[in-house]
Design goal:
CATH class of the largest domain in chain B: Alpha Beta
CATH class of chain A: Mainly Alpha
Radius of gyration of chain A: 27 Å
CATH architecture of the largest domain in chain B: 3-Layer(aba) Sandwich
Strand content of chain A: under 5%
Oligomer: heterodimer
CATH topology of chain A: MetI-like fold
Largest sheet of chain B: 6 strands, mixed
Shape of chain B: elongated
Largest interface: A-B, 17 and 25 residues
Order of helices and strands of chain A: HEEHHHHHHHHHHHHH
Number of domains of chain A: 1
Strand order of the largest sheet of chain A: 1-2
Structural class of chain A: mainly alpha
Number of helices of chain A: 14
Number of strands of chain A: 2
Helix content of chain B: 10-25%
Helix content of chain A: over 70%
Distance between the termini of chain B: 37 Å
Number of strands of chain B: 21
Number of helices of chain B: 9
Distance between the termini of chain A: 63 Å
CATH architecture of chain A: Orthogonal Bundle
CATH superfamily of the largest domain in chain B: P-loop containing nucleotide triphosphate hydrolases
CATH topology of the largest domain in chain B: Rossmann fold
């Protein structure tokens, strides 16, 4: 009897070990389609992009001449590129804080039960589903000099009419304004979801604790949603660094390059001037800038959490 | 320490009346338990006292001062919530200090109160931790500590033990009883658990459908339930109810014939009962015992041996099921035919309206 038990006990683990080893490799098959797509569509292009940035490409002959970091050196010296970098930073600085604060304010105002709240939430989110073409078309009509809605309103008020899209100082802020109007819905929804996670009991405890509305916001609400604040900021930094469609359709980068962002520079260098290596180098710079931006935010968020 | 007076308190949500008209006087230093089934309005009533729910009508006084128009923070009360409601991003110390800082109490005084409460509730070593690093029982103690440091006129507890496991619930119950003895503060405790109510309360307020069924000491509501609802709600196992028909009796005590044909002379005076004829008899398991010489016959379907006593679920001749008690060492088994003896002096009678009549 005892021998039978001991031999069974020895037998069993060996079998199990063989079984798990087999199932490990079997499991890999399930993720293979995703990994294959990921490598093909993301890893390979990233490496290929970096490889391109180190070459001078002749599209007609298909020749590629290795030039090391010459493209990057040229970018550094390129006044238009430096302008594009400056414009992009300016645009991110204009739009991201607006997304965070306005998104949060809207969420706070609309975080209530009832039909009015639901209708307003739908309306504010509604514009996000419009395509960039429609949004820019509508706003170009609004901002049109002399005949646009803005000009009419200002004329009606007896003010001097302005044409933001043809002003060097106002073109980029105008694009930022339109961008915020267009996609404020997502940050608002993320903040709403976070606000609804805070248990009502905590607010009731704060009410019993004599906390004013302002104190409740600072000491209860804001600390409870700080992860979402960081999330929204990171998403928006990544998205707004890539500003392109609105500028291309509203100002074309003008007037006098005052609204040309990096992505438009990349597009024009690559597909208008066919300087693929140069364009790829600019794309690497954008990638590095976004990486730095996100890294700083993650670091700040972590440090605040540790406090 | 403050008394609380509820005067004609009314609460309705649109067309739904949750609490029609409720008046109650709570003495300073009392431990009052609002007891009732889910949805009876006990939590709503507590939240109205706290100021978290506006009253539709009536007046609430805390310490002889009407508070219906005051915000929760200005009512001189503290509340312990069912799910603790601690501030997740604050340490235990900050959780306790938050309410005191909001009313501008000096840091030295805040420290004194926190240290005292921490010593009393054994939170000394946890003051620097955040709620997420605490167990359920510790969180509950922090929630109680947060209430204690405010030194309020009255404490409100909204089912504070329902999230704890059975062992911890018993322990926390004892701690609460100790806390009450020590602080001698007015406490209102909401629960649907009759054991909590029986063990903690100086007086129990039994509620049903927004109305008070009975206010009394635990023993009073157990021994002399005012209505059939109270009789059925208090006590475990629940009281047995049997249809009873009044029969002629020699003296001034009421005699009844129960549904299974058993005739009993109860200890209820016929003067109190007057003309009521259609009655229900109520008898607790401890007053309905298995006894070979008993007059009633039945069959034990299920036997529960609880250690200190044995309960038998017995089907009587007329088909109704009652719970009877057998001695601790009884050898009764499921399926046995048994005889039952009623302790007539502990039989309660209820009229059609549910009003109770007891032995004098």
């Amino acid at each position: 009897m005892s021998t039978a038990i001991s031999s069974a006990a020895v037998e069993r683990p060996r079998k199990a070990r063989g079984g798990t080893a087999f199932s490990h490799w079997g499991n890999a098959l399930f993720v293979l389609p995703f990994v294959a797509m990921y490598v093909m569509l993301l890893i390979v292009p990233v490496i290929r992009g970096f490889w391109l940035s180190l070459h001078e490409i002749d599209l007609l002959s298909g020749d590629a001449e290795y030039v090391a970091f010459t493209n990057f050196a040229n970018l550094w010296a390129d006044e238009f590129f430096r302008g594009a970098v400056g414009n992009t930073f300016y645009f991110v600085l204009l739009s991201v804080p607006a997304f965070v604060t306005l998104g949060l304010l809207l969420a706070l105002a609309l975080n209530r039960p009832g039909r009015t709240g639901a209708a307003l939430r739908a309306i504010f989110f509604g514009s996000s589903v419009l395509s960039v073409t429609i949004v820019t078309l509508v706003w170009r009509l609004v901002l049109m000099p002399d005949k646009g809605l803005l000009a009419n309103i200002m004329g009606g008020l007896g003010l001097q009419t302005i044409a933001p899209l043809s002003s060097e100082t106002m073109a980029l802020p105008a694009v930022a304004f339109v961008t915020v109007w267009w996609i404020i819905g997502l940050p608002m929804m993320l903040f709403l979801a976070a606000l609804q996670q805070i248990p009502q009991e905590v607010y009731e405890a704060a009410a019993m604790d004599n906390a004013s509305r302002w104190r409740t916001f600072w000491s209860i609400t804001l600390p409870s949603i700080k992860r979402t604040v960081a999330l929204v900021a990171i998403i928006e930094v990544i998205m707004q660094f890539q500003i392109f469609g609105q500028v291309q359709l509203m100002t074309g980068g003008g007037p006098n390059n005052s609204s040309r962002p990096i992505v438009q520079f990349i597009y024009e260098a690559g597909f208008r001037q066919w300087a693929l290596g140069y364009s790829a180098a600019a794309a690497q710079v954008l990638f590095a800038l976004m990486l730095i931006g996100v890294a700083i935010q993650v670091w700040v968020a972590r440090r605040r959490e540790a406090d | 320490m403050a008394g609380i007076k509820l005067n004609g308190v009314n609460k309705r949500y649109g067309a739904v009346e949750v609490i029609p008209d409720l008046s109650l006087e709570i003495e300073p230093g009392e431990f009052i338990v609002f007891l009732g089934p889910s949805g009876c309005g006990k939590s709503t009533l507590l939240r109205m006292i706290a100021g978290l729910e506006p009253t539709t009508g009536g007046d609430i006084q805390i310490g002889n001062r009407s508070v219906v128009n005051l915000p929760p923070g200005a009512r001189n009360i503290a509340m312990v919530f069912q799910h603790y409601a601690l501030y997740p991003h604050m340490t235990v110390r900050d959780n306790m200090a938050f309410g005191l800082r909001n009313i501008g109490i000096k840091e030295a005084e805040i420290d004194r109160r926190i240290n005292e409460a921490a010593r009393m509730l054994e939170l000394d070593k946890l003051l620097a931790r955040k709620p997420v690093q605490l167990s359920g029982g510790q969180r509950q103690r922090v929630a109680i500590g947060r209430a204690v440091v405010k030194e309020p006129g009255a404490f409100l507890f909204d089912e504070p033990l329902s999230n704890l496991d059975a062992a911890l619930r018993t322990r926390t119950r004892v701690e609460l009883a100790r806390l009450h003895q020590r602080l001698k503060a007015t406490m209102i405790f909401v629960t649907h658990d009759q054991v909590e109510a029986m063990t903690l309360a100086t007086r129990i307020v039994v509620m049903n459908q927004g109305r008070i069924e009975q206010v009394g000491s635990p023993i009073e509501v157990y021994r002399r339930p005012a209505t059939r609802f109270v009789a059925g709600f208090i006590g475990s196992p629940a009281m047995n109810f049997l249809p009873a028909e009044r029969v002629a009796s020699d003296d001034d005590r009421v005699a009844v014939r129960l549904g299974d044909g058993t005739e009993l002379v109860t200890a209820v005076s016929s003067r109190t009962l007057n003309g009521a004829t259609s009655l229900t008899a109520g008898v607790r398991a401890e007053s309905l015992v298995i006894d070979p010489n008993g007059p009633a016959r039945g069959r034990a379907d299920v036997v529960e041996r609880l250690g200190e006593r044995t309960l038998a679920y017995v089907t009587l001749a007329n088909g109704s099921v009652v719970v009877a008690e057998a001695p601790r060492d009884s050898e009764v088994n499921a399926g046995d035919n048994v005889s039952l003896r009623y302790d007539a002096s502990h039989v309660h009678l209820f009229d059609e309206a549910g009003k109770a009549y007891h032995a004098n």
